[in-house]
Design goal:
By secondary structure, the chain is mostly helical. The protein is built from two helices and no strands. The protein has helices at about 5-50, 50-70.
């Protein structure tokens, strides 16, 4: 067995651990926003009595409307 083959295996393992840690940090950072989005979609679906797809559409329309409102007043 070559020393280079062993080194590349260690580097691959180190790279995999680095990627896993980075993905974990990204998910942990986005988790509060994801939870709020899920709760908001469920609240819209329950309040308006529509499906989850329709709730997402309503949420999207609301976001577009809010963006237009903010752009108009700036």
């Amino acid at each position: 067995m070559d020393r280079d083959e062993d080194t590349s295996g260690e580097e691959a393992g180190r790279w995999a651990r680095f990627k896993a840690g980075t993905v974990g940090q990204i998910v942990a950072g986005l988790l509060p926003f994801l939870l709020v989005a899920v709760v908001l979609v469920l609240a819209i679906a329950i309040f308006f009595g529509v499906s989850a797809k329709a709730a997402l559409a309503l949420l999207g329309l609301g976001a577009v409307g809010l963006g237009a409102f903010v752009a108009a007043h700036n």
